[in-house]
Amino acid sequence: MSLSRTLFALAAAFGVLIAGLPAQSAQAAETSLQRMARTGTVVIGYRESSIPFSYLDESKRPVGYSIDLCRRLVGAIGKQLKREMKTEMRLVTSANRLDAVVNGQVDLECGSTTNNAERRARVAFTVPHFLTAARFMVRADSPIKGHIDLHRAVVVTTRGTTAETLFRQLNLQSRLEIAPDHAAAFAMLAAGKADAFMMDDILLASLRAAAPDPERYRILDETYRVEALAIMFSRDDPELKALVDREMKRLILDGEVETIYRQWFERPIPPNGINLRWPIGRLLRNSFRYPSDWAPD
Hints:
Elements: H1 3-28, H2 32-39, E1 41-46, E2 49-50, E3 54-56, E4 62-63, H3 65-81, E5 86-91, H4 97-102, E6 108-109, H5 117-120, E7 123-125, E8 130-139, E9 154-158, H6 162-170, E10 175-179, H7 182-190, E11 196-200, H8 201-210, E12 217-219, E13 224-229, E14 232-234, H9 238-253, H10 256-265, H11 282-289
Parallel strand pairs: 1-5, 1-6, 9-10, 9-11
Antiparallel strand pairs: 2-3, 3-4, 7-14, 8-11, 8-12, 8-13
Helix pairs in contact: 3-9
């Protein structure tokens, strides 16, 4: 083959390659909001046992405080896109929830996820809807009364949570066991396979209240690091973030969030009619006065 023909063939091949790039780039650059507009569906990530934020009721339907907030957000998304949106519910765990958002498998993660700097490197969060602190729960007959008694204890927590990281920072000289979800961690405590369960205080209180014999458990007084829980979504979609932040602020300032809060924290909830009797705390109420996506790290 002559040199001229060789150069022509290479140029043609390069042209074909370049011609294919715009379509591929356009497809790769599709944002979450654009995908929702195209499919007419918002995929909500829910949790199995994060009472009262996101869990399954007696009919195995996802319900909870975070789920109700996300349904309001879906309505706002549909209003902006000028179409009625369908909702697809997809189960996530504490271990895979970030990957589900990053990989586009979930549009809104509606569970009990802490907003912190490490996670913001991969995902985005909207305005916090709850403030919590990590604490320990033990059996009522346990000799463990406080922090100092936790040395050499067997402590369980849930995989992929901030409690797992925090425990390692406390240097308690205890043995840490990791459970796949909150229900499994609580079962280990109940069965005596763990001496203490470390988790967000409200989740501990919820699991205790839902137990057949809640008086068998008590939550220790010491608190460790206040954390903000917020709905999570893709960090590569500023238009979606602006929309979600705007709607969350409206829900808070119009008082709708407080109404939803009281339904899940101060009244009987499914499946067994437990009442957590957990009114809005001072820190959360103050944060609702000037809502923003800021969160303590």
